[in-house]
Predict the structure of Sigma 54 modulation protein / S30EA ribosomal protein.
Amino acid sequence: MNIEIRTDKNIQNSDRLITYVRAELNAEFQRHSERITHFSVHFSDVNGAKGGADDINCMIEARPAGLKPVVVNHRGHNIDTAIHGAIDRLKRSLEHVFEKKENPRGGALELAEEAVEAETTHD
């Protein structure tokens, strides 16, 4: 899994931030490590120096192998809440994408006549 981390001019990028984000992504997506080839994480401060509630945005783009990229955003009052909110959204989105790939039509279809027959044989 390749992980790329970027920040805008209002957020200081550091080795500590990079290590933290990599650890969080690895912990949450370890079981999908063979399915996801790349993560791109971008932090931005929406209001810049003005401050404000929920002004840190975290955008994560995940690239599952053989599928279209999945992108999520989450705003929080600090980097920690922004990254965790984005990770939660990404987990749900990726689970949906993987489930859809494994069961493209939601499972096997059953005809109405077969369902009625099955019910009558069990009674």
